[in-house]
Write a structure and sequence with these properties.
alpha+beta; 14 helices; globular; 12-stranded antiparallel β-sheet
Length: 451
């Protein structure tokens, strides 16, 4: 008897699951739209059940843009010749940019917003294309396939801002040369301008004269780069401004590039001035060049180093060591980062991170510089909004069917009207100050004298 009840219960559960699956996935397919759209392919990447869920069948929009350009072409033919000559290059430029960027290949756009934790939201943006419709710049400039975001291991815990991106630089240069050639054709300068192959040869020749092998350079480049900024909130530096210096937390910054070999570092080292030299007692695993300090409002002692597959240039050696050594607290263990990065994709083609530390530092700098600001009350309101922000973290993924951006942010949407109102007040007060400061025009022209 017990076994029979168990089997009945299992059958009921399986039947309920099958019914839910049928209603959720099968039934909608029985009522397809009369338009061949990409709704299911695009929205499969979105969060359902949240506060925003939008799908746009972009192919119709893109066709409308193409039809509009064709209509302008026809209207242009009816214009007088002098007007036609002026308008033609601009219209051709619009068409070239539209097609070269791949905007005409977008088949679907999707946006969703979902609150995954109190005070934190996940926004997803999807750009979808159909198979084979991926020749434009937007599909090819930012990497080929999602990968492990191992550059996160480079970031120290006090990172306030970080950006990393896959970038096919050789492809971008090739695209720019073809794009420039088409612009020349559109402007009627194709006879005077170089072809894409000629433009590439000219660039390679110029680099060769500077002692840089372009092909070797591209072979050494690892396909991704990024930068980071740290802030020392315990120290203040004065940045020169028009009326008085602006106090901000002491910054430091670094640029990191993924490399396949030592060619880029060796080229920099060979061209470095005599003042740049490897420090004494340097780590054998780290090749480093340190330059003399540069006069600046904050400490700047440039340094360049390579360790393994990472080449890093930093504003001072201490940050360089913090990035490459892997020692000390890391951003991946930081409480604020862990909160906002929870459940983000672990693979992608790049990421962006804005720390709450940066928001609080900006708010503090605003409060410290309120005196003399024409709309100090509005600036104080903006500072209060920034204080409440939990930052932002974004991961971008490239797939064979398009691009997906997943954004986690801690901005309170309810504060948006107050922010807009504060910005409008600043604009009004600034306009009043400019109007008051401008010299009044003369009432009338002084009479002329004839001697």
């Amino acid at each position: 008897m017990k076994k029979a009840l168990i089997f009945i219960l299992i059958g009921v559960l399986l039947g309920a699951a099958a019914g839910w699956a049928f209603i959720r996935y099968v039934l909608p397919l029985w009522q397809p739209s009369h338009v061949d759209n990409t709704f299911y392919e695009t929205t499969s990447k979105l969060d359902k059940g949240g506060e925003v869920f939008v799908y746009l069948h972009a192919e119709q929009v893109m066709r409308a843009v193409v039809d509009a350009l064709d209509g302008f072409d026809k209207a242009l033919e009816l214009m007088p010749e002098e007007h036609k000559v002026k308008a033609r290059p601009g219209l051709d430029m619009a068409r070239i940019m539209f097609e070269s960027y791949g905007l005409d290949e977008i088949s679907g756009v999707g946006i969703s917003s979902f609150s995954f934790k109190p005070g934190l939201r996940r926004v997803r943006l999807v750009l979808h294309h159909r198979p084979g419709k991926d020749q434009g710049l937007i599909w090819n400039a930012a990497g080929a396939a999602a990968r492990s975001l191992d550059e996160l291991n480079l970031l120290p815990a006090d990172t306030a801002l970080a950006v990393s991106q896959d970038a096919d630089i050789a492809g971008l240069i090739e695209w720019a040369s073809r794009f420039g050639s088409r612009i020349g054709d559109a402007e009627g300068k194709n006879q005077a301008g170089p072809s894409p192959d000629q433009a590439m040869a000219l660039m390679k020749g110029a680099l060769q004269m500077a002692g840089i092998d372009f092909d070797r350079l591209m072979a050494s480049y690892g396909g991704r780069f990024g930068y980071l900024i740290t802030l020392d909130t315990e120290k203040r530096v004065a940045i020169p401004a028009k009326d008085k210096p602006v106090l901000i937390p002491e910054p430091a910054f670094a640029l990191f590039i993924h490399v396949k070999d030592d060619y880029i570092f060796d080229t920099i080292k060979a061209k470095a001035p005599e003042s740049g030299k490897p420090p004494a007692g340097a780590d054998q695993d780290v090749r480093k060049i340190v330059f003399p300090p540069i006069l600046a409002p904050f400490p700047v002692e440039p340094a360049i180093a390579q360790k393994g597959g990472w080449l890093v240039a930093a504003s001072r050696p201490s940050l360089l060591d913090a990035v490459l050594s892997g020692m000390g607290p890391r951003l991946s263990a930081d409480k604020d980062f862990k909160e906002i990065a929870a459940r983000l994709p672990r693979k992608g083609n790049g990421f962006s991170y804005v720390s709450p530390r940066l928001m609080r530092a900006a708010a503090q700098a605003m409060r410290e510089n309120l005196t003399g600001f024409p709309a100090s009350s509005a600036l104080a309101r903006i500072a209060g909004i920034l204080d409440q922000s939990k930052g932002l973290c974004q991961v971008r993924e490239v797939s064979e069917r398009g691009i997906v951006a997943t954004i986690h942010h801690g901005f309170d949407v309810a504060s948006l009207p107050e922010l807009v109102d504060a910005l409008a007040e600043i604009a009004r007060k600034s306009a009043q100050v400019r109007k008051t400061a401008a010299p009044a025009p003369p009432d009338e022209e002084p009479p002329r004298r004839f001697d």
